[in-house]
Amino acid sequence: MTRTVLTLLIVMHFTGVSIAQRTHNCSYGINGGWKIKSPDGRSLDVEEIISKQKDDTGIPEIVRRSLEAVSKRMNLRLMVYVGQNNAEAWMYPSGERLLLVDVGFCSRVNEMCDTRWAAISIIAHELGHHISNFRGDAHQRELSADYWSGYILQKLGASERSATAAMSIIGSDYDSETHPNKRRRIAQIRKGYADALSDG
To answer: CB within 8 A of 161, min separation 6: which ones?
Structure first.
């Protein structure tokens, strides 16, 4: 089984990362989240980072198993937060990869969708951006990440209904400049799910 390289950052302050130099990012939140003031990332207001000697959120394990499900090895900095109501993927010009996940957001999404797979599908979506290297225009990037979300969830043992639960409830009925409507996105999740079934 492929070994996944992850670094869980357990720190008290987030001031050293140059947000303005990122090349790509994707945000998946409820009611805004993350407090990013502009698309080019001029400002990021992070309220609090979990401070623990030992992680007990389960998020690093979800990330590890998700990447193993697609036989991907990557250097990925995982940052686990509270108080930001979001999950987000970043890739910098240097090639550095970052995944930020708020544990409270995960809990709320699972409650809204009535399945523990909802948050996992969102984490898998954000990982999908890293798997596909943020290729294509805005809509293509989102649809590619949705595909990998469906693929990963099937490999992890979710039902197709569970794999699409978050998008069905949280997704938008309309296209935006950055995101396709949820019908197109659910179709891609189902395609990834079906392909994972075919791969055995």
So the answer is: none
Residue 162: φ, ψ to 5°? -65, -35
pTM of the model: 0.79
CB 10 within 8 A of CB 52: yes
H-helix segments, the chain = 59-69, 103-113, 117-131, 138-156, 160-170, 182-199
Residue 137 neighbours by CB under 8 Å, 6+ apart = none
> What are 110-131's pLDDT values in tens digits?
999 999 999 999 999 999 999 9
Per residue in 170-197, pLDDT (tens digit) is 999 999 999 999 999 999 999 999 999 9
CA distance 146 to 188: 6
CA 5 to chain centroid: 17
Assess contact for 186 and 194: CB atoms under 8 A: no
Asked if residue 106 lies in contact with residue 59, where contact means CB atoms within 8 angstroms, the answer is yes
Give ∠ CA 53-111-191 in degrees, rounded to 5. Answer: 95
By DSSP bridging, strand 97-102 and strand 75-82 are parallel
In sequence order, the β-bridge partners of residue 191 are: none
Exposure letters 146-173 (e unless 16+ CB within 10 A, then b): bbbbbbbbbbbebebebbbbbbeebbee
Query: Which residue's structure tokens are 């693929």?
Result: 151
